[in-house]
Write a structure and sequence with these properties.
The protein is of the alpha/beta class and 469 residues long. The protein has 16 helices and 15 strands. Cobalamin binds next to α1, β3, β4, α4 and α5.
Length: 469
């Protein structure tokens, strides 16, 4: 029997992310299709009911980060109304498997390819009975005694055995931005990051694998920009050198711009040169804070404010745009620390930046801290983890700065951000404006309207969301 699987990304329908849905579901689809050619897989974000009616799947697989878990529950209830088994996977259920709700049958913990394959085979075989499920590694399922977590499944060491994501199932526009991943995990343990604890250790696709996938993406989508959404693309210098050589040898640097994530303590002149050779035009860095004490708390003492300054300088001087992300609201962070972050940004060469409220993501030490203080719970309204909007609903970890002061600081940062983006827009737009005036003066108004609407971003939409989740 050929199994039919509908994979759904639990995203708030009203919220549009540039890179949605993530690659996670596309990796699962490619893996199942490669190992079980008869299996049929579809990926849905919206109109899930219509997809169920049209595709009639054997089961539904839902992917969810914590702040969208209530949305995931709603999708599961919908599937249950159609009598379908429901599997949940992703960052949330991996961090809190015991929160598996009755409307979901199985939670897949951690990396999902092998586990989903085994579940697909068992459904096809004896069905998902407790006896069968208790033998499947890396899941949580319901028993009379409550959620049962089975033995952890080891990660796939040979990443090369995982086929590239099934992008044909994703709504990717030709000529636009395509996201890629060249690694899983991060060698660092920032206090707020759930990803590094999700993946546990860092594994990287080889430079040859990455360049092969870039070649495929270029011929399938002719993107103007490839955005690598790795947690830390530059973690291995030897791989970076090999990547730069291979990209140049294949002329890929002449066909597409790239954006990647960096870390200040890894930035030096050679790294900047390697990124420029690969035609990386935009580098994101988690700079986090302008206060040494807060930076130590957030990042663990392996990067300093001086490192951050030098990194922004080095990359900007090499011609890259540097976008920095910062977090404020750490428990022991005082107003003076937040002012230090503001001063850092003011004196920096950052092309753009985002400031987020520190959020206690499940699976992180911050979650445990917030749990102790009764700020979060395992049956909470998960949307309160959303840190897109700063307001009363949000969870504030700060012990020293009031919500009103916090709101004041955020308006200060967004004021500086608007100024900086306006400056950047005109600095980028003016040369093109004069060229347009010279070449096609009669088309200047529609040309300007398009520029103003698109805000001239580098694979960046005006929602200012960086792929740093
Ligand atoms: C790219 C990215 C984005 C992109 C794309 C998002 C998307 N739809 O996936 C954008 C920019 C849109 C984004 C936004 C956000 N992100 Co984000 N994002 C990432 C990032 C960097 C990579 C995701 C990815 O593709 N991973 C690689 C694939 C292979 O892994 P995967 O998606 O986890 O899937 C694997 C397993 O989890 C599992 N699996 C996953 N789903 C399912 C489903 C089933 C049925 C099964 C069987 C298995 C399974 O199998 C897959 C293959 O092994 C991750 C960090 C990371 N490195 O993973 C953060 C991360 C997922 N994001 C995170 C967050 C918080 C967010 C935001 C909430 C931030 C915000 N406030 O706006 C939003 C919410 C977006 C949303 N999904 O609703 C957190 C989630 C933590 C948590 N506990 O919730 C992460 C872990 C980052 C972190 N530092 O902690 N993000």
């Amino acid at each position: 029997m050929s199994v039919k699987i509908l994979l759904v990304n639990a995203i708030e329908p009203r919220r549009h992310f540039q890179h949605e849905p993530g690659l996670g579901l596309a990796y699962l689809a490619a893996f199942i299709r490669q190992r079980r050619p008869n299996a049929q897989v579809r990926i849905a974000i919206r109109q899930v009911a219509a997809e169920i009616a049209d595709f009639a799947p054997d089961f539904i697989g839902i992917s969810s980060v914590s702040e969208n878990f209530d949305r995931a529950k709603a999708i599961a209830s919908l599937a249950k109304r159609h009598g379908l088994p429901v599997v949940i996977g992703g960052a949330h259920i991996t961090a809190l498997p015991q929160t598996l709700p009755p409307e979901m049958d199985i939670g897949v913990i951690g990396e999902g390819e092998e586990t989903l394959l085994e579940l697909t085979d068992t459904l096809d075989g004896h069905g998902w009975t407790p006896a069968v499920l208790s033998q499947v590694a890396g899941i949580v399922f319901h028993t009379d005694g409550g959620p049962c977590v089975t033995t952890p499944r080891p990660v796939i060491e040979a990443l090369e055995t995982i086929p590239p994501p099934a992008r044909d199932l994703l709504p990717i526009e030709k000529g636009g931005t395509v996201t890629m991943l060249s690694s899983r995990g991060c060698p660092y343990k920032c206090v707020f990051c759930s990803s590094t604890r999700f993946w546990n250790k860092m594994r990287m696709f080889s430079a040859e694998y990455v360049v092969r996938e870039m070649g495929q993406v270029l011929s399938d989508y002719r993107p103007s920009h490839i955005s690598f959404v790795d947690d830390l693309f530059v973690a291995s210098r030897p791989r970076l050198r090999r990547l730069a050589d291979l990209i140049e040898q294949r002329g890929i640097h002449r066909r597409v711009e790239l954006s990647v994530s960096c870390r200040a303590n890894l930035v030096d002149e050679e790294l900047a040169r390697l990124l420029r050779r690969m035609n990386v035009v935009l580098a994101w860095i988690g700079l986090e804070s302008g206060s040494e004490a807060v930076l130590e708390y957030l990042k663990g003492g392996n990067v300093s404010v001086a490192d951050n300054e030098r990194a922004v300088e080095t990359l900007s001087r090499a011609g890259l745009e540097v976008h920095g992300t910062f977090v404020i609201g750490a428990p022991r962070e005082a107003s003076a620390d937040i002012e230090a972050t503001y001063d850092f940004i003011k004196r920096s060469a950052l092309a753009d930046f985002c400031v987020y409220p520190l959020s206690p993501l499940p699976g992180t030490p911050l979650w445990d801290y917030a749990l102790q203080r009764g700020l979060v719970s395992e049956d909470m309204e998960w949307g309160r983890l959303n840190y897109e909007t700063v307001g009363q609903a949000n969870i504030s970890l700060s012990e020293l700065v009031s919500r009103d002061e916090m709101a004041h600081f955020f308006s200060m940062f967004s004021g500086e951000r608007k100024r900086r983006r306006r400056r950047r827009f005109w600095r980028r737009c003016l040369p093109h404006l004069f060229a347009q005036l010279y070449r096609r003066p009669h088309r200047i108004v529609p040309w300007l309207r398009k520029r103003l609407a698109g805000r001239w971003g580098h694979g960046q939409s005006s929602t200012t969301r960086m792929t740093r989740g």
